[in-house]
Design a protein that fits this description.
This protein has 17 helices and 13 strands. The protein is an alpha+beta fold. The radius of gyration is 27 Å and the shape is globular. The termini are far apart. It comes from Volvox reticuliferus.
Length: 442
């Protein structure tokens, strides 16, 4: 049949696109006649998926475990996620690729790459697609999720959400009015050809800097990425939009939160708390790399020794701040593209970082599960335990400076600076007294 001249003449005009989870035929015009051509399935659909479907009949949980292992989400949520965001592949993926590879398979390839951090060639081998097509699908998919998913999934708490976050942090660590835990990490990349030395971080590899704020449930509420790896956490925060909004009172302000109760009446809930005559507004908890201010709180320095009250305060701050370290560990374990990838472009790496943080929020909210074997133990232990703290029972030791790089923003006069420094110390003293008079968390 292969040597038939009619077949050889018709073969270039017969397209046989690969379809995911489907078998069908279509009619094409060959030599003036309409002939039905059966579309064959590729290696992935026949060998891999068919095998899993057969095993799924014997072991109902096996197929769901396959989705969790490869796509980091359950089978039910995977298809719901595809139905919500398959529009990104219908809009941006070229029609030639879209006709051959349907949106569910494109989404599976994107999630598989984010979860494994494999090369485009490895992903193409797994899904029986060429590396060039994988490159287009992943870049267009990341762009689409960056525009559609990230603004919905990563939002700074306001209103009643802020009150709930403060309540969760108080139950977790004992500190009142905590609106988030802030810290930085690195997104590993390959050294760029232009200005590559600037991306070399202090851990000894090229990376982009990532600044993040999380709530008590390890959900990212603010993410900034894309700066050079040589830029520290404090520098990333000082030049961030979040720092500017904090200075101008656009977020974490003292204004009460309006809320309509069940009876329809408008009720105002205060976000500040008065302790021993001092009004405490919402603030963020950070490590010693950040400057102390009335919006950023950190531990006491033990250079001259700590009292029992100061030790309790440090314990509560570290317990509260550990949330962001655990969030980074789960992010790197679930989406291994953060620590293992073949990305040269810092801008594309920044978009990928935003997308994986948004996906982290989505799967954490949906309780899709997390497996301990995903953790990158050797790399993540540095992030899960603070660099400047060693914990032995109830004793904390640090080398950070309490008033390092104080103040955070320019002051108008020396009198204003003295008054501002005094207010910060008063807030700290009130917090120490608050913790001392309440239950000690073990």
């Amino acid at each position: 049949m292969i040597c038939n001249p009619w077949f050889l003449a018709a073969l270039p005009r017969v397209r046989m696109p690969r379809r995911l989870w489907s078998q069908y035929g279509r009619k094409v015009r060959v030599g003036g006649r309409r002939v039905t051509v059966e579309i064959r399935n590729g290696l992935w659909e026949v060998s891999v998926l068919g095998h899993w479907l057969r095993l799924g009949r014997m072991y109902p949980d096996l197929e769901n475990a396959h989705y969790v292992q490869n796509f980091r989400m359950s089978k039910v949520f995977f298809w719901k996620f595809v139905s919500d965001y398959d529009i990104i592949f219908r809009k941006v993926v070229p029609k030639r690729i879209r006709d051959a590879i349907p949106p569910p398979k494109c989404m599976a390839m994107l999630l598989y790459w984010l979860a494994r951090g494999s090369s485009f060639r490895d992903v193409g081998t797994q899904f029986h697609v060429s590396p060039a097509v994988v490159h287009k699908i992943i870049h267009n998919g990341v762009k689409g999720l960056r525009e559609r998913l990230v603004p919905r999934a990563i939002r700074f708490p306001e209103g009643m959400e802020l009150l709930q976050v403060m309540h969760d942090f108080k139950n977790l660590g004992g500190l009142p009015c905590v609106a988030g835990a802030m810290d930085g990490t690195f997104f590993h990349i390959l050294k760029p050809s232009y200005n590559g030395d600037a991306y070399w971080c202090y851990k000894g590899f090229p990376a982009i800097s990532v600044l993040a704020v999380v709530d008590a449930r390890m959900i990212f509420t603010y993410v900034r990425s894309g700066l050079h790896g040589s830029v520290g956490d404090a520098g990333a925060f000082m030049t961030s939009e979040l720092s500017s909004r904090l200075q101008h009172g656009q977020v974490l302000g003292p204004d009460p939160v309006p809320h309509v109760d069940e009876s329809g009446a408008l009720v105002y809930y205060p976000v500040t708390q008065v302790v021993q005559g001092i009004t405490i507004a919402p603030y963020l908890v950070a490590d010693s790399a950040f400057a102390l201010s009335n919006k950023v709180m950190k531990c006491y320095d033990d250079k001259d020794g700590l009292s029992a009250v100061q030790d309790d305060f440090n314990y509560c701050v570290i317990r509260t701040r550990r949330v962001v370290e655990n969030a980074f560990a789960r992010l790197k374990g679930r989406w291994q593209v953060v620590v293992n990838n073949h990305i040269y472009d810092p801008e594309f790496a920044s978009s990928v970082c935003q997308v994986v943080c948004a996906l982290h929020n989505v799967v954490e909210t949906r309780n899709c599960g997390f497996r301990e074997e995903w953790l990158q133990v050797e790399e993540d232990l540095r992030d899960r335990v603070p660099d400047y703290v060693t914990v032995c029972g109830r004793n904390m030791y640090g080398n950070g400076q309490l008033l390092h790089r104080l103040p955070m923003f320019p002051l108008r006069s020396c009198e204003c600076e003295k008054r501002w420094r005094s207010n910060v110390i008063c807030i700290l003293n009130v917090l120490y007294a608050y913790i001392c008079n309440h239950k000690r968390y073990s």
